[in-house]
Amino acid sequence: MGLYQMKFWFRNTFNNWAKLFIRVNPDLLSFLAVLIAFITGLCIYYCPYNWGLLLAACLLIVLRMVFNTLDGMIAIAQGKKSMIGDVVNALPDRYSDVFTFLGLALCPLTYKTLGMIGIVSILLVSYSGMLAKAVGVSWQTQGPAGKVDRLVILVIGLILQYIFVIKNFKPPKLIGFNMSIFDWLMIWFILGAQITIFNRVKGMLREIRRKENAL
User: Fold this and answer.
1) Number of structural domains found in the chain
2) What range defines the domain where residue 97 resides?
């Protein structure tokens, strides 16, 4: 399951917070998380002009994760869990991923080819998880490049990029190419995505066979 299990730790940690927002429409938090992700992407894209934006992006990512956790908790507490709610919970999350990682892909520090392949890989990971629901089995959340995994790795990468710039460190080269921490992040997302898709398809097929054998 990867770091996806952190979701349940988050829920326990913010259980009391959810009570404070009990009257808030959970959909509002879902859409606010998209806005936060959009600002995060801008911070990452413009970080070469102000390195402090890297730290701001880290805080915004954590805030997005909090909002993504609270919206589901509040919806359950209000008795509003529904199929429409599942759509509102899932689709804005995909937009959030696009906004955040597009900032990383298009940043001047990132090789554009790596960036584009990375974005496509991340979207395919999300698709592979939702595909299971479409064929009638449970949503697949295996890692190592699920949503929570990606965001945690991204925060670590942003902090490393900040440290490397401040300390004037040079990341290791790859086949003679000068690489930034962002480039190495994208390589991890690309490779991790393929492993994740494989794990999710394997989990999906396992459930499908179990259902078919039960008929």
Assistant:
1) 1
2) 2-214
